[in-house]
Design goal:
Chain lengths: 112, 113
């Protein structure tokens, strides 16, 4: 009964370092998403993948890249981390682009 | 573009009090509307939804009615419990805009015994 699994749950980086957040879902969903959550700003969409083989920018894509590795996995990469990227990151999936989203537990990233 | 505005928190209530969290939206098309809830240390989960005007979504004692004339989707519960303490997010999904969810800023609810 895993649903959406994100790793790592916590990470501390120094400015300029790179890292990849991993996300996998076992619900055979077509669509996957990466959001960031910041105090007072709700959730903002970084990138999404409506279906395997496609990715599109969301509201705040700058400084990030994504890879839809296969139907199950959707990774988010920070090439050169900045303090402004300190946030909680959530991966989500849905059966269709307009369907209910299922969220992972989040990954808390701190950039010093 | 489409947007969602929620009442600011935090909201603090005593157990068994009535709850209303206001949500209004702006959309060019005919969106579906959602309430998601985030319990401490967890990801978001769908609480209820409504897909067309005058629809009422309900779950776990919470209700919200899709009001097209006032572009609102207020969340209500008649008697809150300590276990309802969480952050509540209003969201919309507009098929004409690709169907991606757009969230409000969230409202933190704290219920005291």
């Amino acid at each position: 009964n895993a649903g959406v699994t994100q790793t790592p749950k916590f990470q501390v980086l120094k400015t300029g370092q790179s890292m990849t957040l991993q996300c996998a879902q076992d619900m055979n969903h077509n669509s996957m998403y990466w959001y960031r959550q910041d105090p007072g700003m709700g959730l903002r969409l970084i990138y999404y993948s409506a279906s395997e083989g496609t990715t599109d920018k969301g509201e705040v894509p700058n400084g990030y890249n994504v890879s839809r590795l296969n139907k199950r996995e959707f990774s988010l990469r920070l090439e050169s981390a900045a303090p402004s990227q300190t946030s909680v990151y959530f991966c989500a999936s849905s059966a269709t682009p307009t369907g209910e989203l299922f969220f992972g537990e989040g990954s808390r990233l701190t950039v010093l | 573009g489409d947007s969602v505005t929620q009442m600011e928190g935090p909201v603090t209530l005593s157990e068994e009090a009535c709850l209303t969290i206001n949500c209004t939206y702006t959309a060019t098309g005919y969106p579906s509307l959602f309430w998601y809830v985030q319990y401490p240390g967890e990801g978001l989960q769908l609480l209820l939804k409504a897909t067309k005007a005058d629809d009422k979504g309900s779950n776990k004692g919470f209700e919200a009615t899709y009001r097209k004339e006032t572009t609102s989707f207020h969340l209500e519960k008649g008697s809150v419990q300590v276990s309802d303490s969480a952050v509540y997010f209003c969201a919309l999904s507009d098929f004409n805009q690709g169907g991606k969810l757009i969230f409000g800023q969230g409202t933190e609810l704290s219920v005291k015994p």
